[in-house]
Structures are given as structure tokens and as C-alpha cells.
Amino acid sequence: MAGPTHLIVIGTSAGGMPALTRLVAQLPASLPAAVLVVQHLSPDSTGEPLVRRLAENTALPCQLAVNNLRLEAGRLYLAPPDRHLLVKDGHVLVTKGPRENGYRPAADALFRSAAVAYDSNVVGVVLTGMLHDGTAGLDFVKRCGGTAVVQDPHDAEFPSMPESALRNVAIDYVVPLDEMGKLLEKLVSPATPPSPTKMAAIPADLKLEAAIAERVVGTTEQAMQLGHQVPLTCPDCGGSLWEINQGSVLRYRCHTGHAYTADALAESSQHALEETLWVALRMMEERKNLLNSMASHGEGHWSVQQAERVEEMKRHINRLREFMLNGSEGTGIKKVDAEEIP
């Protein structure tokens, strides 16, 4: 078959399998676009069961993407587990580059490479899913003149990804899943005239980021071209982060290639902080137990001192427990007084 005139790039996560099945069932075999899909999968999965399920429900031939495979219109390509799916010169690239927003494959990486390669002939789609992947990707698509489509959050099993996109990007179409197939078919139809707002020039920063993703690892000099260094560290590698100056979505990346939206970075730092606090609580509990043993095996003033230290440690433990367990209203967790700690 002929090479595609358009690309439809789709990102989804939680709830993605049934959503993708419903969507691709609406697409005809004569579709003049190639369809590329990032579904967040476990790194140790094969992806084949999802390919088979999609193929059973669509007229489009479906396959796992293979590196350097030539793109064809009317065919669906699924990102393999633990690999980024990229596009360049009419071909598929499959790489094991750094994670973006904690994901590999990442919708952002696919959307960016597609936008750079096919400019205004790209339709980016974000379906049901958790957190923020795809938000920056839709911004990339828009900056290159493409079209952004989001599943109506009220129609999504997990609305977080669509809602994030809507908060941060000027979305062109928000539609329920059962209406999306006809819309996509219309958007890639040769009979649909291009929008007068479509951009001809591809932003230089997106070209650079796409090139970094293709080569897997970037450099400090490239990161400096994209933004300014900030006093934050990369959650994945511990390296310095640069704040990206371009686009409507606040983003960060390290020189090795890890990339985050501000929301994803905040989520990651929150998880790291929570883990650290639980470790601190465990160590405080162990110290309290040790002081208890010391107080019970001592005598006189020394024993009294250890008992006082136990009471002080109980107060610290109680404050930390309240902070961790009752930090949000409506948690339903009972507050604990220091006197109640054994």
C-alpha cells in the first residue's frame, strides 16, 4: 500500500484496551492514514494479546511496531512494551530511550516525533488514562499545525489524561468515544481542506527534542538550548533539570533525555517524599522501642532519662503519623494521641 498522507497518533493508559477496541472498530480499511498507538503496558508483557484483540475488531491490519518498518496507510502500529515508538522519514523507529513522565513507551515521545515528521498532517488523540502522558504531546502536535482530539472526560473510564490535556492545551475536538471514528476519518480525508491557521514551520526546539529521542541520550549543550537550568533533580537519574521555555505546557528535562510535565514531576517528587517519610517513621519506631528497653533495664536517674526520651519520641511519632495519615480532609483515618502510642 501507499505511504500515508496523515498520521493518527493515539495515547491511552488505564481503561485503554476496551476504549481502543471501540475506536478502531469505527475505522475503515480505506483510511488514508497510518494509526500509531501508545498503550501503557507492563514491561514484561508481549503486547501480542492486545494486537490480536484489536485485529479482531477492526478492518485495519494491526501489528506490533518493528524498528525501521515502512509506514503504510490503513494500518495500525502498536508500541511494543518498554520501547518508545517514534516516526522518521516515513518509517517507524523503536527505541529504548529514557522514560518520559515515567513511561516507556510514552505518548509524548510518539506525538512529538510524528508532529516533527508530518507537521499539520497529524491528528493527536488522548483517550482514557491516569495522570498526564499525552498532554505535552498534544501541545507538540498543535505547535506543528496538527489537530488535537480528546475523549470527553465524562465518557472516559479514567478521565485523568483527557482532563490534563484540556487544562493545558487548546484542544480542537472533545468527543465521546462512539463519535470519534467518524471525526478521525473526516480529519484525514483528502476532501477536508487544511485549516488557515496551520503552521508551515516546525519549531526548532521540537526538532532538537525529536533528534535527542532518536539518539536515545542527549547532552548538556542540547539541554541548554532548550531551556534554563533550575535547582531541581531528575527523579529517574538524579541529574540536573532544565525548565523548557517553549510551548504552553510547563516541562522539564535532564540532559540524558528524561522528560516531565510539571504535573508529572510534582507527582514523582510526592511519591519520593512519601517513601522517605515512611522510612523515617519506621526508624523512629525502632528508636522508641530501643529506648523503652534501655529504660526498663536501667535504674535510677539514668532510667528516668530514657523514659523521658521515650515520651519525647512518642510525640514526634504522633506528629509524623498525623501528617501522613490525616493530611487530607475526608481520609477517615482516626487521629492518634501520643498517650495512645504503646
TrEMBL record:
The keyword Metal-binding does not apply. Its EC number is 3.1.1.61. It catalyses: [protein]-L-glutamate 5-O-methyl ester + H2O = L-glutamyl-[protein] + methanol + H(+). Gene3D superfamilies: Methylesterase CheB, C-terminal domain. Keywords: Chemotaxis, Hydrolase. InterPro entries: CheB_C, Chemotax_prot-Glu_Me-esterase, Sig_transdc_resp-reg_Me-estase. The active site is at S13, H40, D133. It comes from the Bacteria. Coiled coil: none annotated. The keyword 4Fe-4S does not apply. Residues 2-191 form the CheB-type methylesterase domain. This is protein-glutamate methylesterase.
